[in-house]
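Q: Joint fold for the lines below.
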Amino acid sequence: MSDIKKFMYLNRRAPYGTIYAWESLEVVLIGAAFDQQVSLMFMDDGVFQLVKGSDTSQSDMKNFLPTYRTLGDYGVRHLYVDKASLEARGLTTDDLIEVAWEDFETEEEVDNIVEAVDADQVVQLMAESEVVFSF
Amino acid sequence: MPIEVNGKTLETDEEGYLANINEWEPGVAEVMAKEDELDLTDEHWEIIKFLREYYEEYQIAPAVRVLTKAVGKKMGKDKGNSKYLYGLFPYGPGKQACRYAGLPKPTGCV
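A: Joint structure:
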């Protein structure tokens, strides 16, 4: 099939308080069934979606941080994080969860598909994407 | 429609999935399987248990493709294939096994 498109899901909002982050994650999980080339970009407060150790027990929302770790199994190849957004919030990639990826057929493995990128790369990655969903 | 399990009445959604995952007990799977006229074997329980663990770890019910892959990784390719899983759960391993395990309907299943 030659209909494979490059999809990018752009996440710019904090994980809890609104439904955007969870909705985005659900669309990614559903979309992954269609064998597209999928990557995610986290910018602005969206970087908080990947911060380790979140605790939602005092809120009414389910903690869906563990669900990001399945994205590799759903065929997502890249989770990009905007470096400037991390720095502005006093965060580094050490504060973020790791997501592994493995091709079950070829046994090719990547330990962590979470990657910090600078502004030029952000622009380039977005320009390369054929479809961008913004949440 | 609510189901009766060991004298308790448990709520389900319109498609028969348990409303509250925390109310699950093995009797739930037994009652649901009986309605489907399916005898649960150790092989069925292995998948049901696996799904419960998967949900515990990742907070979602896996899509059937991901379930197949994950079962293969844990139990070997003999079991991590559609033929084996559909053999056990003819209504679809994603939907049927998740329902028996008390999980919500898998994300992405229509």
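Q: Anything notable?
A: Residues 18 and 102 of chain B are 5 Å apart (CA to CA). Chain B has a mean pLDDT of 92.
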